[in-house]
Amino acid sequence: MPDTAVPTAPLTPAQVVDEYLRILMIPDPAGARRFVAPGLRIRFTGHREMADPAECAAFNAGRYRWVKKRIERTETVAGGSAVETVVYSLGTLHGEWPDGTPFEDNRYVDRYVVSHGLITDMQVWNDSAEWLLEPSLNRRPVT
Known about the structure:
This protein is α+β, with helices and mostly antiparallel strands. The chain contains four helices and six strands.
C-alpha cells in the first residue's frame, strides 16, 4: 500500500519559537531540546548564562511556584546572516510566587536567533526582578 502521509512544511522561525515556548512552559525541557542547536546560548535577566532548556526550567522552578507565558505577539526580523532570523516573543507572565501569592501582567520580552530551523541564542527580560525587589509594584488585584 502506498504511503499517503502528507509531507509537512518546515516550521517558520516564529513557529519554532512559539512551539519551543509552549513545550518549555509545560515544563518539558527534554521536548524543548528538539528546537535548539548544539552550543545554544541562553541569557536570562541579570546576565544569568545557561546552555540547556532544563536550566531554564530549573531557574523558573526556583523563582516561581509556577509560571506561564501569555504570548501577545511574535515578531521576526532579518538576522546577522542570510541563514539567521531574529524572533521576538512579547507578552506577559502569570503564576504564583514561591509563597503562593498570585501575579499576572508581568511583562516579558524574549529575543531568539533561529538558524537552519533551530534556536541558537535566547535572551530573556521580564519584570520579575523588579517586582521581587519592590513587591508593591505587583500589588494589583489578580482577576
